């Protein structure tokens, strides 16, 4: 049987390249022939990819597994297509141009004809960290009674800590003092010498997306104005379109996925 420290080497030094993907969710109150453009770059956008997303009223449509390059700028542009009833030729939703990092973009409110909009940038399986560049094999970790932390290190199963993962964290939560919904977990250091014997872990805070720091005390991403919305219509129905715009702001049903 392999000695546990050798497992650490296998768990944390892969032969494959890091990566992640973009996932977009849309929902509409009307039938739409929406299109989505995803681009990279700032002044001269490159690698533009266009996708068709026909929407059925009150059903969520998901576009997923779109490869992204971390630490590179990117943006998403959604075009609704026409809604004749309101004189709308099309509405565009444009995300802020971001420096690609693991994150979620979901405003509190959205303009009709859309009723839901959400972007998630996620890590591929067994990749962790803000830029999805830290490897940890979750399946192998389970075989030695360990788990992969959000930062890609090995840790004890939830609620436990110690070299043998046999102590309850409940009695030591003050050592973490996590803020903003952070969760106190065990983390073993990455080994520079895999032949070392027993390794001592430490308690750290796993932060929800949008927060960082040793205690999750700092905001890492600004959610205030993640998108801009523009509407376009025909001149002879401009009054209808203006009224539609003024009354079209609704709660984003995809802001929190477990609410609807």
Automatic annotation (TrEMBL):
Gene3D superfamilies documented for this protein: 2.10.25.140, Laminin
Disulfide bond sites: 123-132, 136-148, 156-165
Secretion signal span: 1-18
Swiss-Prot/TrEMBL GO biological process terms: cell fate specification; Notch signaling pathway
Boundaries of every DSL domain copy: 121-165
Cellular location(s): Membrane
Predominant place of localization: membrane
Keyword terms of this UniProt record: Developmental protein, Disulfide bond, EGF-like domain, Membrane, Repeat, Signal, Transmembrane, Transmembrane helix
GO molecular function: Notch binding
SMART domains with a match to the protein in the record: DSL (SM00051)
Entry-linked InterPro entries: DSL (IPR001774), EGF (IPR000742), Lag2 (IPR039178)
Membrane topology of the entry: Single-pass type I membrane protein
GO cellular component: plasma membrane
Function of the molecule: Putative Notch ligand involved in the mediation of Notch signaling.
Protein name in the entry: Delta-like protein
Native source organism of the sequence: Caenorhabditis remanei
């Amino acid at each position: 049987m392999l000695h546990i420290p050798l497992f650490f080497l296998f768990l944390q030094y892969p032969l494959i390249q890091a990566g992640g993907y973009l996932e977009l969710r849309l929902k509409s109150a009307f039938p739409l022939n929406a299109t989505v453009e995803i681009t990279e770059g700032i002044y001269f956008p490159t690698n533009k990819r266009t996708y068709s997303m026909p929407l059925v009223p009150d059903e969520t449509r998901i576009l997923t597994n779109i490869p992204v390059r971390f630490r590179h700028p990117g943006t998403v542009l959604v075009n609704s297509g026409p809604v004749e009833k309101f004189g709308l030729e099309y509405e565009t939703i444009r995300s802020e141009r971001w420096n690609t990092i693991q994150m979620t973009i979901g405003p509190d409110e959205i303009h009709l004809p859309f009723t839901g909009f959400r972007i998630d940038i996620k890590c591929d399986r067994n990749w962790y960290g803000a830029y999805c560049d830290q490897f940890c094999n979750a399946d192998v970790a389970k075989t030695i009674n360990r788990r992969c932390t959000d930062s890609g290190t090995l840790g004890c199963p939830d609620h436990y800590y110690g070299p043998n993962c046999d102590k309850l964290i409940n009695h030591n939560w003050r050592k973490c003092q996590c803020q903003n919904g952070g969760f106190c977990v065990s983390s073993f250091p990455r080994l520079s010498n895999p032949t070392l014997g027993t390794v001592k872990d430490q308690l750290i805070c796993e932060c929800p997306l949008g927060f960082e720091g040793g205690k999750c005390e700092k905001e890492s991403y600004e959610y205030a104005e993640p998108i801009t919305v523009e509407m376009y219509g025909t001149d002879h129905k401009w009054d209808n379109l203006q009224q539609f715009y003024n009354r079209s702001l609704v709660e984003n049903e995809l802001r929190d996925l477990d609410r609807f």
